[in-house]
Amino acid sequence: MSGPVMKHIAIIGGGFSGTMAAVNLARLSEVPLRVTVVNHGYPQGRGVAYSTRRPEHVLNVAARNMSALPEHPNHFVAWLRTRTEFADMPDTELRETFMPRRIYGDYVRSLTLHYTQPIDRRSPVETTFVDDQAVDIVARGAGARISFASGEVMDADKVLLATGNELPAELPGSEALAGHPAYAANPWLNWEAKLPPPTESIILLGTGLTTIDAIVTLLALGWAGNIHAVSRHGLLPQSHFKGRDYQEFPPPEIDLSLLGLEALVSLVEKHCRQLRDVGENPAIVVDKLRPHTQRLWQALSLAERREFVARHAARWNVMRHRIAPNIHRQVAAALEGGRLKITRGAVLHLEPVGARVRVHLGSAGEAAARHESIEGALVINCTGPQPRFSATRVVLLHTLLASGVVQPDAMDMGISIGPDFVALGSGGRPSPFLHVIGPLLRGTLWETVAVPELRSQAMRAAQILLGGLSSRTAFPPEKPAEPAVVEYWI
Ligand SMILES: Cc1cc2nc3c(=O)[nH]c(=O)nc-3n(C[C@H](O)[C@H](O)[C@H](O)COP(=O)(O)OP(=O)(O)OC[C@H]3O[C@@H](n4cnc5c(N)ncnc54)[C@H](O)[C@@H]3O)c2cc1C
Q1: Which single residue of 147, 188, 254, 315 has CA 20 to 30 Å from 290?
Q2: How many domains in the chain?
Q3: Which atom of ligand 1 is found nearest the CA of 438?
């Protein structure tokens, strides 16, 4: 007699989010289950963020907050102790260290190996890794059929979409720069091979985290030319700092989600001022908001969300996405020494000029009011992942949009979802087979790009996908590792 047919879950995207969902399925399921992780492009487990091999590319979150397992907050620090170079580092120092991202990639890979290919126990979960690009997903029976660029197809009962960060959006004029030796459209792919002589200038479009990566790499390579970074606001990320636990925020008597945007902004600004007045960094308030950010975003009306993005997001981002102090020091020294120049301006157009690229800039907001141009022997698009979902250049997402399997969220920042990460198709119809996690949920959750949020999503998605199947529904939470009041990098 044959038993019940084993369920098959397909995960599309094997960066941090998809890989940790697979790890959690392997940890949680108590019934036989087939899991396939489909990944193409960046190495499995590492994705864009952790596939860099450059040692100067460090995490922008201290080790203490980078556990991949939500119920074991100390797990990454404990794993680091297995490596000789960290074995004797005092705990307080190790927890506050900003590790090279490649080491974090090693961590995720070692978790994958441990949980999905166990050698000393019989796991009821059979996990397979496939290197292929998914290009379409259609309904088939109660489940789905996935098509691949290779021409293969695969059927699954449930599909988890975790395709992560997209490349930066194309810029006006960049179509004429395809293959140009002085233009790098992908800031995460080997632009070092295009380095011009140090008598030339390099232009970085954007002043966010990707630009910081490029600057520290240029410094580490000993490239001695001028670096020019350009963005609408001209704001560089701030440094993490030794802070204090600011008990006054959020005020316990106020329900932040009832405030609305205007009152919320006033409250935040008031507490920022209070901190500044006593010589503390106002970014403490942004950190104190972190556990509430998703809920607050969801409580805002669509008009308020749009207003936040238009008027406050740039300021929010520089306070929220901070960098390791050591990296900040290097960037500050380059600025002081004149090696690095920051210009405020909107990129109007890129133009090939012989072996160089000319960047036409207008003043932010009123592009026509001022016009200037600068030339670089290498121009790197560091503007961050493509922000408009409907303009996606990912074949799979484009196909899913066209067929109505998914629809953009109201902000057009990602995929529209309902409860339990279920994708909503055209007309708001919940998909019977498709769930979505990771940066694709930006429009719904706002705060959904970094490990502290993604590890919980990967765990929750595994629990949801196991659904009616017998599973260890949850692991008992470990006691939080944070002492109540401490001086730490925040
Ligand atoms: C440069 C950089 C540095 C960062 N540093 C930090 C940090 O220090 N700390 C932190 O908490 N967060 C950091 N982040 C945030 C980062 O988004 C998350 O930590 C996390 O890596 C996101 O993982 P993901 O799996 O959702 O997406 P991704 O890492 O983008 O992985 C998605 C994977 O899916 C694959 N894929 C996409 N489409 C398909 C398809 N159709 N078929 C098959 N495969 C497909 C991609 O090639 C990729 O391998 C950083 C992000 C970047 C870009």
Answers
A1: 188
A2: 3
A3: 26
Tokens 């006006």 correspond to: 172
Helix (H, G, I), strand (E, B) or coil at 178: coil
In this structure, what CATH number is given to the domain that contains residue 190?
A: 3.50.50.60
Q: Of 115, 131, 138, nearest to 37 (Cα)?
A: 131
Domain contains 2: no
Confidence of residue 3 (pLDDT cuts 50, 70, 90): low
Whole-prediction pTM value?
A: 0.93
96 and 157, same structural domain? yes
Asked if 219 and 162 sit in the same domain, the reply is no
Instruction: Give 360 Cα–ligand 1 centroid separation in angstroms.
Output: 31
Residue 38 lies in a domain: yes
Among 42, 48, 327, 440, name the best residue to mutate to test ligand 1's pocket (greatest count of ligand atoms within 8 A of Cβ): 48
Clarify whether residues 336 and 216 are in a common domain.
yes
Statement to judge: residues 51 and 88 lie in one domain: yes
Shared-domain flag, residues 62 and 192: no
Give me ligand 1 centre to Cα 236, in Å: 22
Q: Name all contacts of 184-193 with Cβ < 8 Å and 24+ positions apart.
A: 184/378, 184/379, 184/380, 184/381, 185/381, 186/381, 187/213, 187/214, 187/380, 187/381, 187/382, 188/48, 188/52, 191/378, 191/380, 192/217, 192/221
| DSSP summary character for residue 4 | P
Residue 473, pLDDT above cutoff 90: no
Q: Which residues constitute the domain of residue 192? A: 174-238+323-381
Q: How far are the Cα atoms of 263, 275, 296 from residue 266, in angstroms, in the given order?
A: 5, 14, 15
User: Same domain for 157 and 270?
Assistant: no
Q: Which residues line ligand 1 (CB under 6 A)?
A: 12-18, 38-42, 47-49, 59-61, 101, 133-134, 162-165, 210, 213, 394, 396, 438-439, 449-451, 454
Q: What separation in Å is there between the alpha carbon of 163 and the centre of ligand 1?
A: 8
- Give 37-76 pLDDT, tens digit per residue: 999 999 999 999 999 999 999 999 999 999 999 999 999 9
363 inside domain: yes
Whether residues 158 and 191 share a domain: the answer is: no
Kindly tell me if the per-residue pLDDT of 480 is higher than 60: no
Residue 128 has pLDDT above 70, yes or no: yes
Same domain for 246 and 229, yes or no, is: no
pLDDT tens profile 138-165: 999 999 999 999 999 999 999 999 999 9
262 in any annotated domain: yes
Q: Does 482 score more than 50 pLDDT?
A: no
Q: Which residues contact 453 (CB under 8 A, 6 or more apart)?
A: 294, 445, 447
Boundary of a domain, candidates 320, 355, 373:
320
